[in-house]
């Protein structure tokens, strides 16, 4: 069993309120969860309206499968939102 976690940090210059941010975060989390069958949550900067930080976790049978899923989530994150993906950091156990 291999566990993979990824931290995705986005910058949303168009968000002018926490309400704007919440709508984007909820939509992005729902789409990531549904498309890739992973866990996804907002993990940092909940009070900063132009910063979105999501944590994604996946469990699979081998390292290659975890890496493949995280690669797909990262690629999706580049295209799935108006917010700019600033960084993607991974860790495997």
Strand content: 35-45%
Q: Largest sheet at a glance? A: 4 strands, antiparallel
Please provide the count of β strands: 4
The helix/strand order is EHEEHE
The tally of helices reads 2
Provide mean pLDDT, rounded.
96
The general outline is elongated
CATH class: Alpha Beta
Q: Structural class per helix/strand content?
A: alpha+beta
Number of domains: 1
CATH homologous superfamily grouping: TT1725-like
**Percent in helix:** 25-40%
**Through-space gap between termini:** 9 Å
**Reading side by side through the largest sheet, how are the strands ordered?**
2-3-1-4
- Radius of gyration of CA atoms, rounded to a whole number: 13 Å
Second CATH tier, the architecture: 2-Layer Sandwich
Q: Detail the poorly predicted runs.
A: none
Q: What fold name stands as the CATH topology?
A: Alpha-Beta Plaits
Name the descriptors:
single chain; 93 residues; alpha+beta; Alpha-Beta Plaits; four-stranded antiparallel β-sheet; 2 helices; elongated
Brief rundown of the structure:
The protein is of the alpha+beta class and 93 residues long.
Structure report:
This protein has helices at 18-36, 63-79, and strands at residues 2-11, 39-44, 51-60, 84-92. The protein starts with a strand and ends with a strand. 22% of the residues are buried. It has a single domain (2-92), classed as Alpha-Beta Plaits, CATH 3.30.70.1120. 39% of the residues lie in helices and 38% in strands. It has 93 residues and is α+β, with helices and mostly antiparallel strands. The protein is elongated and about 40 Å long.
């Amino acid at each position: 069993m291999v566990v993979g976690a990824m931290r995705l940090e986005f910058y949303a210059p168009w968000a002018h309120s926490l309400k704007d941010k919440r709508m984007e975060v909820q939509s992005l989390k729902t789409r990531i969860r549904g498309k890739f069958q992973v866990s996804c949550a907002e993990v940092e900067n909940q009070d900063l309206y132009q910063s979105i930080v999501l944590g994604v976790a996946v469990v699979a049978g081998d390292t290659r499968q975890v890496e493949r899923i995280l690669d797909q989530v990262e690629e999706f994150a580049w295209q799935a939102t108006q917010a700019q993906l600033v960084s993607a950091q991974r860790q495997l156990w």
